[in-house]
Write a structure and sequence with these properties.
Helix content: under 10%
Order of helices and strands: HEEEEEEEEEE
Number of helices: 1
CATH topology: Lipocalin
Distance between the termini: 23 Å
InterPro entries: Calycin, DUF1934
Structural class: mainly beta
Organism: Paenibacillus elgii
Protein name: DUF1934 domain-containing protein
Number of domains: 1
């Protein structure tokens, strides 16, 4: 975390870009949300966009150096933690049922890029759903301040 992120400067409106690559499929989503910090953690909170097909779901991303935790509440519930070199178990609960998730995180980089960038996180991992063969995935999440 940078000094800017640790100061707890209060909630800020941000533009969030989420780029994902999973099984050769690349998806880029942009949405607005809030960034705030508490102690050594930075948080992003946003409502999932309609194209994500998660109904009314709010996502909270908690970031610290070396760890990302994603929690979703609403029509879809989800919890997963990412720490480099570690295996974590999580879940995805939809109206159709619950899926057990297993991730092994390979890389994780937390930084801020540029004067308006509050957060930039990149990570890669292997994802196994319900014990199936793992699939290699990567994500890039950035949050940039919106003009006040």
């Amino acid at each position: 975390m940078t000094e800017k992120q640790q100061t707890g400067a209060g909630k800020r409106a941000v533009r969030i870009t989420l780029e994902s690559d999973s099984g050769g499929e690349r998806i880029v989503r942009q949405m607005t949300g809030d960034w705030f910090s508490k102690g050594r953690h930075a948080y992003l909170r946003y409502t999932e966009p309609p194209e994500a097909e998660m109904g009314r779901t709010v996502t909270t991303v908690r970031v610290e150096q070396g760890e990302v935790r994603i929690i979703r509440h609403g029509d879809v519930s989800f919890e997963q933690t990412f720490v480099p070199g570690r295996r974590h178990y999580g879940y995805l609960q939809t109206p159709q049922g619950r899926l057990e998730l297993e991730t092994f995180t390979q890389t994780l980089d937390v930084a801020a890029e540029g004067p308006d960038a509050l957060l930039a996180v990149r990570w890669s991992y292997e994802l196994s759903v319900m014990g199936q063969a793992p699939e290699r995935c990567s994500l890039c999440l950035t949050a940039v301040s919106l003009p006040e």
